[in-house]
TrEMBL record:
It is found in: Mitochondrion inner membrane. Keywords: Membrane, Mitochondrion, Mitochondrion inner membrane, Repeat, Transmembrane, Transmembrane helix, Transport. The lineage of its organism: Eukaryota, Metazoa, Chordata, Craniata, Vertebrata. This is Solute carrier family 25 member 40. Pfam families: Mito_carr. It catalyses: glutathione(in) = glutathione(out). Its main location: mitochondrion. Solcar repeats lie at residues 1-55, 65-157. Belongs to the mitochondrial carrier (TC 2.A.29) family. It is a multi-pass membrane protein.
Length: 170
């Protein structure tokens, strides 16, 4: 439904039909694959980010990371995490589009994550699980880089602010 231009009336009709036929839980299609994508993504992201940041600081001979170090570490860590978790993003998209297919051809039943993965591989090969890698990396790498650079800058700013405040109080 996200890829189609639906009016609010059409969107309401789709949602109403789904809820009437399958209950309120039908609105959470794709939740399982989303969790399977986001939890490993976060673990991979933070682990790689800290490793890259530490290595670049060591190579540069500095204790605190620069904006360039945090930006490049965030982009690299986000790219790795996005690539490794892309199959679950592809499955999530397939799972969510089942809602539209179910409404259009009300004979289909919902597929499990593993059934969808097997279907994708049988129809498109293993590479089918990595459909959309370029758009995903184009979105994720800069988003992660900007997010972590902003986070690290804010952390550094407030650490200095608190340090100065503590020095004035002593």
């Amino acid at each position: 439904m996200q890829s189609r231009r639906l009016s609010y009336k059409e969107l309401y009709a789709c949602i109403s039909t789904s809820v009437a036929q399958n209950g309120w839980l039908s609105l959470w299609k794709g939740w399982g694959p989303t969790v399977l994508r986001d939890v490993p993504f976060s673990a991979l992201y933070w682990c790689n980010y800290e490793s890259f940041k530490r290595a670049l600081c060591k190579k540069s001979g500095i204790h605190e990371p620069t904006v360039l170090i945090t930006f490049s570490s965030g982009a690299a860590a986000g790219s790795i995490a996005a690539t490794l978790t892309l199959p679950f993003d592809v499955v999530k998209t397939h799972k969510q589009t089942e809602l539209w297919q179910f409404i259009s051809h009300s004979s289909q039943k919902s597929s499990s994550v593993w059934e969808i993965m097997k279907r994708i591989v049988s129809e498109n090969g293993f590479a089918g699980l990595f459909t959309g890698i370029i758009p995903r990396l184009t979105k994720i790498a800069p988003a992660c880089a900007i997010m972590i650079s902003t986070y690290e800058y804010g952390k550094s700013f407030f650490r200095k602010l608190n340090k100065n405040k503590d020095m004035k109080n002593h």
